[in-house]
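Teaching assistant's notes for section 4

Start the section by putting this record on the projector. Ask students to predict, before seeing the second block, whether TraM-like conjugate transposon protein will look compact or extended. Collect guesses on the board.
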Amino acid sequence: MHTDTLESAPEAKPRRSFNSVRLVRQDEKNVIRAFVHSTQTVMTGSTLKMQLAENCLTDDGQRIRKGTPVFGEVMKIDGERVLVRITSVNLGGNILPFEKEVYSEDAMEGIYVPGNAKAETIQEAEAAGVSGAGTNIAGGLDVGSQLVAGAANSIISATKSAASKNIRKIKVTIKTNYRILLRQPKE
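Reveal the predicted structure now:
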């Protein structure tokens, strides 16, 4: 006669191991696709308008729909890269946490702006030329002339300072629909 019995399987011992590499499954992504909303000329401190190309979640888990505009601050223009950081998103009149860094599709941080290194070098050379302009007018003059020369030196110095600051403001143009990736900031 045959009887069914229920035997307990030996208990599996928990595995204790150290994994230094975390594999990312194909359906699990660490970036959000987006694009630059319109052609924009920016400099450090400017705001860049972008738009989400896919649905995603805010940092506190609320759903954001594809097409939602997001805004980031241009943190730095470094050679051929424009570094942009997003801190929040306006969703239905609520400002929600959305900490992201902008990457180009080449997986490097920042928006790639080819040819900007040359413009930066030219601007630095122009700034050096402005700051090298002489201001010593007062040598060998009488007291009255030295006062006038001192005032002229002050005006030249102020003008030189203002011109130097304007030359150093590097501006770059980012084209409409430039595809970008948004990623959680590195810790």
